[in-house]
From TrEMBL:
This is DNA-binding FadR family transcriptional regulator. Gene3D superfamilies: GntR ligand-binding domain-like, Winged helix-like DNA-binding domain superfamily/Winged helix DNA-binding domain. Residues 16-84 form the HTH gntR-type domain. It comes from Rhizobium giardinii. Keywords: DNA-binding, Transcription, Transcription regulation. SUPFAM superfamilies: GntR ligand-binding domain-like, Winged helix' DNA-binding domain.
Length: 239
């Protein structure tokens, strides 16, 4: 790590939307401190004290940058910058300026449809036996929770993330991370309806079967079935 004669000041933040503010503050800090790829970021404790936020908030911001592939945590050594970033880079989250959940979900769905369908196809071609085991574990947990609770938002998301990882293309994860706030609305009981997209439940198993069979077209078809139900429920439940 190169010696830095003068570090940029890290100012405490007001208690509003801390995770997003910390993410932006870290990006700004990295730019102003002239940190370059290979440099180590300040320790968690130093960041916590400087920004007056808790460890979990700092870790969430670091995880965000890790998911984007711009920092790397090295066990026993610290967190290192892999790529130059700033508050103005494309690595900051993308979001929609809309007050209507229906419109936000439909616009996000247009993007999600392309990403999810392609991810399913690529995963079917590229998945390893280890990937398949991870996807099935997430699917089994999703089905277990769904059958006991009638809904399984976080577990459903984990299943889709496992498919992204099976593509062996980090851009799928990075795109999701940039749009996480918009995408996660699908798994947070939209319209306060725990039955949102419930009819898509069986197609997650058939999607897994298509990926297991290494059948890209079938994977695409099952993905589109899931998202067609999502679209129907957005329109129906927002009336």
């Amino acid at each position: 790590m190169k010696h830095k004669d003068a570090r940029a000041a890290l100012m405490p933040l007001p208690p509003v939307d801390r995770a997003h503010q910390v993410t932006a503050a870290l990006a700004d800090y990295i730019q102003r401190s002239n940190l370059v790829p290979g440099d180590r970021l300040p320790a968690e404790r130093e960041l916590m004290a400087a920004l007056a936020v808790g460890r979990s908030t700092i870790r969430e911001a670091i995880r965000h940058f890790q998911a984007l592939g711009v920092v790397e945590a090295r066990k026993g050594s610290g967190t290192y910058l892999l790529k130059p970033i700033s508050g103005a880079t494309i690595h900051m989250p993308l979001s929609l300026e809309t007050t209507h959940l229906r419109d936000a979900l439909l616009k996000t769905l247009e993007v999600r449809r392309g990403i999810e369908a392609e991810a399913g196809m690529v995963a079917a071609r590229m998945r390893s036996s280890h990937d398949l085991k991870k996807i099935e574990e997430k699917l089994n947990e999703m089905e277990r929770v769904h059958l006991s609770k009638g809904t399984s938002g976080p577990e459903d998301l984990a299943f889709h993330l496992a498919i992204y990882d099976a593509t062996h293309n980090p851009l799928f994860r990075q795109l999701l991370e940039q749009m996480r706030e918009a995408f996660e609305r699908f798994w947070e009981k939209p319209f306060d309806r725990p039955d949102f997209a419930r009819r898509s439940f069986p197609f997650h198993r058939t999607l897994f079967n298509a990926i297991a069979a290494q059948d890209p077209e079938a994977a695409r078809g099952e993905t589109l079935k899931i998202l067609a139900i999502v679209e129907e429920d957005i329109k129906e439940m927002s009336k």
